[in-house]
Amino acid sequence: MRRMVPGKRESLIIQMRRGTLEYCVLALLRDQPRYGFDLVRSLAQADGLVTSEGTIYPLLGRLRRDGLVTTTWHESPSGPPRRYYQLTDEGGRALALFTTEWDRFTDAVDRLLQQGDSP
Amino acid sequence: MTTEADALILRYLQQLESQLGDLPANRRQELLDEVHEHIAAARADLEPETGAGVRSLLERLGDPADIAAEARDRSGVQARPARPATPRLEIATIVLLVIPFLGWVLGAVPVWLSRLWTTRDKLVGTVGGLSWVLGGLGTVMVSAGRPVGQPGVDVATTGPNPLEVVLVVAPFVLPLAAAIYLGIRLRGRAGAPATTG
To answer: B35: which chain A residues are within 8 Å (Cβ-Cβ)?
Structure first.
């Protein structure tokens, strides 16, 4: 269980999460724009990615200022209009680049970890 | 639509606002709006809405101090100890606002340069500062409405018209009230309790 992870591993997970979270957000926006609550709940469903849902909003602000994401307002079936987050062209390119690098990185690490397993 | 839920949410947003004290006002407002929208959407999902449901919704959102720490981190704002201790611009603005006439006009300009006050605070400062216009208007109305040398009307017995009193007193009271209000809002920003640790 994650709850029983010792402190050192906990901080490793935090650092890994930190580096990859923004690309997880971009990936969730690849196919369609989403409003904040929907986006945050989808992220929270991925195990261990998000502990405090509210911390996603500062990240979204950062992505918006960096031009990777834009916001637009859409009517909601119930209640007031909602702010939707949408991937920009630049955001799409950043995601594609990360995906390539991530595949290479995880392949390399996986190979090393498996090598260690078998003598 | 329980009042308990409203109170919980209001307290949460107030805590978040005070924790976000050292962010630029526009960024703070943006973040507050987004979290507010999140709460509204999450609330609509609660069926039926209970106090426990709202509490768990806020727990999932997380400690306001954590959100604020993340916001400082992501926007490159340094933690509290590094920011200037005295908000000089804000103090100068408040001092200007209480100087009659000229200060009221001058105070309405620097209030907009502040990064600590929100747009609403700035509007209060501007309206308060410029309320001498109201006074000028009031004086004109008072003198126009009272025919000179009208026989049989004694001010001492009829007493002043309450509207006239308001129009003459308001330009002196409003800037002072605005200055006090801005001072209180400034204390909320500059002296907000430090984040965890």
So the answer is: 54, 57
